[in-house]
Amino acid sequence: MTNILEISADELQKSLDNNTDVTIIDVREDEEVAQGVIPTAKHIPLGNIPEAVGNLDPDKEYVMVCRSGRRSMNASEYLKGNGFEHVKNLEGGMLAWNGELVF
């Protein structure tokens, strides 16, 4: 198991408020995303991560998100194992997110 840093929902909200250059990737399924996503988040379902990794910049910072944090941790570990050094997992996932949602 790789060592993945976690970011709290409050820390992520502060990053968004400060316009920090971070890419949020939501790995939930389509029906879950229909209930709302964090603003600016890109939707890449977990099963599509292996094929999408070639379109991602390994030098950028990523925060992976799912419902509770487990699937996004798997996605984080996959990215880290493929040379992505700046990957964090949203601790508690969308269940911990109290910020704005877009539909």
From TrEMBL:
Coiled-coil annotated residue ranges, if any: none
Any Pfam family: Rhodanese
Cross-referenced InterPro entries: GlpE_sulfurtransferase (IPR050229), Rhodanese-like_dom (IPR001763), Rhodanese-like_dom_sf (IPR036873)
Record's signal peptide: none
Start and end residues of each Rhodanese domain: 18-103
Gene3D superfamilies xref list: Rhodanese-like domain
PANTHER family the record matches: FAD-DEPENDENT OXIDOREDUCTASE (PTHR43031), SULFURTRANSFERASE YTWF-RELATED (PTHR43031:SF17)
UniProt name for this protein: Rhodanese-like domain-containing protein
